[in-house]
Amino acid sequence: MRELVERAIQAGPGRVVVPGAEAESALDAAVEARRRGLAEPLLLGAAAAIRAGLAAAGEAPDAWAIEDVRDPAQAARRAVERVRAGEAEIILKGGLSTGELMRAVLDRERGLRAGRLVSDVLVTQAGVGEPRLLGVTDGGVNVAPTLAEKRAILENAVEVFHRLGVARPRVAALCALETVSPAMPHTAEAAELAALSARGELPGCEVFGPVALDGALSVEAARHKGLTHPAAGQADLLLVPAIEVGNALGKAFTWLAARPVAHVVWGALAPVLIPSRAEGAMDKLCSMALGVLVARGGR
């Protein structure tokens, strides 16, 4: 994840608008991002609280772009307006709910719809000592995706990984077991996605499944289970069957494994960053780095 931040800094500061910027972790992340040359933030929220927070961090508030917008829904709409006007290229959620922000992003008349499904991609370090990234999708936007929606979610995540420099990500279609079971419809959909990939209908990636988490991430577990797919145990992306699975996995990385994480919602006209409000400033900094690389096409 450190390399992710360094690559984003080399790409040049991103124009990041932060609705609800009075939230402590969001403001701390904005300050750190500006100091590192990662972002040039535009702060939307309770101006007095934002200015006080900046001063407490040793910053000169007058040197920052601040807009006094106290209503969370209005702040979300204003952030979208700034992107539509070309004044910002990335949105970072501050102290407002994901629902409030996404309602503004997905507004059919004044939002950032691009004619396709939007979905959340979480990115973290694959494991201790492993110099690669691991993605999880979708634990933040789509609640119970259909097979067609899972395909769109997969395509969004693959595009994100392409922009991160992973030319052909290995995608594990997660389920509770490795065989198709009539009692578990997700297993049949995972098998169908793997078949589409085998036929070349999902370009730019390699999909295998259905597969449980251990068979997706551990070569040893995959061997014990007799999994023969060449990507078994080496997944770059975990495609989850429902939002609860992705949400729990993401929070487990933070609260059980103490790993830094980054989130990006992709499929709209601009990257939208929706870290949990409970995540710290470093995770929000990583999300900004991810947003910069996605916005710039990985350059």
From TrEMBL:
<comment type="similarity">
    <text>Belongs to the phosphate acetyltransferase and butyryltransferase family.</text>
</comment>
<dbReference type="InterPro" id="IPR012147">
    <property type="entry name" value="P_Ac_Bu_trans"/>
</dbReference>
<dbReference type="Pfam" id="PF01515">
    <property type="entry name" value="PTA_PTB"/>
</dbReference>
<keyword id="KW-0808">Transferase</keyword>
<dbReference type="InterPro" id="IPR002505">
    <property type="entry name" value="PTA_PTB"/>
</dbReference>
<keyword id="KW-0012">Acyltransferase</keyword>
<feature type="domain" description="Phosphate acetyl/butaryl transferase">
    <location>
        <begin position="75"/>
        <end position="290"/>
    </location>
</feature>
<dbReference type="GO" id="GO:0016746">
    <property type="term" value="F:acyltransferase activity"/>
</dbReference>
<dbReference type="InterPro" id="IPR050500">
    <property type="entry name" value="Phos_Acetyltrans/Butyryltrans"/>
</dbReference>
<protein>
    <submittedName>
        <fullName>Phosphate butyryltransferase</fullName>
    </submittedName>
</protein>
